[in-house]
């Protein structure tokens, strides 16, 4: 496979391996890959890039959507991701105030965040089944509506038990934005575009996580904790309308084009195919027809089989690595609000607003990461594909994943120098 990627000994067509660049570098010279001539290419600066996956001729294929439709769908989901990220930890600066109001400990108040994570994690298993069977649109609409209604419920809650129950349903609603957006990006964008889009989506979630507590802290300090949830219902209501109008169904069953080389030791050959009249191209569906919340089923597979299908992947070390990464993120998201609320209140007598401001440092780091990470991964994938005789391998993106070690070692090194815990918490 080239560039250190091991050859597969069992599969002729390896999933993810595809011809991405029509230009390959062989023996130090650029050559045109013959197989790429018959394939569809990108436009503008990407005219030398082979589209992966190859779009169909159907204008209703999400890969063939007009640019404005793709962007409207994507940026609506980015807004949802920001609100989704903010909804979880935003109450952190108000933990002490809530504990005093309800006469409980800060840990008991923080348990509402754990309840939300319970709902988020458990519903992820089921929303994948619904999305695969019935499409993404109906799941997104239901999720946004759940988050909208649960925020109203939380604002009206008379006690901590009611808050915990409402946060559970917030977790149900958050599940789709945490997981389905990644597959939606795959539905409407090509491989050479996905890195920057996935980075923007991740940035939106992390921006919500860092800015949500900051904004909520001003509200809880100057108004009330209930008003914070009332105010967040406004953007959720707007997001529901945007989702209804612009997030059309992206699940599409297309015939897979055979553009992945079977044997990379052989030179690509252009075969002559007898000309024949192909199938009739469907007419473009109207914008109004795409507003239907439900578009039928997309697979005949039983829902039980769909539910059980991911579990065999648990034997893969890659799966456990990803579980560890996401689990650590969830742990820190639940731990940091508690640390901030207790450490800065007890040691420095910070109010809710000052506690919220400690999140700014994290936001600065996120901005720096998104400005470099996304464009770098897309450019790097094309660059390495050219040096691999035009062939793209999914493993190329692993190289950019190693940058996370900088943050891990930096944080550990800072802690190892004996800096106080409050300094570490804010940085």
From TrEMBL:
Q: What species is given as this protein's source?
A: Cyclocybe aegerita (Black poplar mushroom)
Signal peptide limits: none
Q: Provide the GO MF annotations for this entry.
A: transmembrane transporter activity
Q: Where in the cell is it found?
A: Membrane
Q: Would you tell me the Gene Ontology cellular component terms?
A: plasma membrane
Q: What is this protein called?
A: Major facilitator superfamily (MFS) profile domain-containing protein
Xref: InterPro entries: MFS, MFS_dom, MFS_trans_sf
* Major facilitator superfamily (MFS) profile domain segment(s): 73-427
Coiled-coil-forming residues are none
Membrane topology per the entry is: Multi-pass membrane protein
PROSITE patterns in the record = MFS
Listed transmembrane segments: 72-97, 109-126, 138-156, 168-191, 198-219, 225-247, 313-335, 355-377, 398-417
**PANTHER family from the xrefs?**
MAJOR FACILITATOR SUPERFAMILY, MAJOR FACILITATOR SUPERFAMILY (MFS) PROFILE DOMAIN-CONTAINING PROTEIN-RELATED
Keyword line: Membrane, Transmembrane, Transmembrane helix
